[in-house]
Design goal:
single chain, mainly beta, Jelly Rolls, 1 helix, PKS_Associated_Protein, cNMP-bd_dom, RmlC_Cupin_sf
Length: about 130
Amino acid sequence: MEPISLAKALASFDALWSPRVVTTVNDYDVRVAKVEGEHVWHAHDHTDEFFLVLDGELHIALREPAGERTVVLPKGSVFTVPRGTEHRPTAPEGASILMFEPSGTLTVGDRHDEVPDHVDATTGHALG
């Protein structure tokens, strides 16, 4: 049990849209990822998804009953996508993010569009 440097964790890999699990809290993973470009439209039917922008800027497009909208998260911002809400994260100029979600949650959710090659459909990879 030692402190974990998020900067060192992020420096340990280069893959985009391929989160690493930095620690676990009860039954939840704390994951970090480097992102750039577009993810895929997807929804998590049974869990919310928490985002914290560590560096850069993240955009999250949302499909809600009132229509589509996009939230913009600059560095230091947090946002929670409610369970069941279709969303698509994008980072036009790249970003580093931290996510908090139940262990075993697939990065492309329970429902998703076709997964492009640049998106890693994973439940998170171990650091190192």
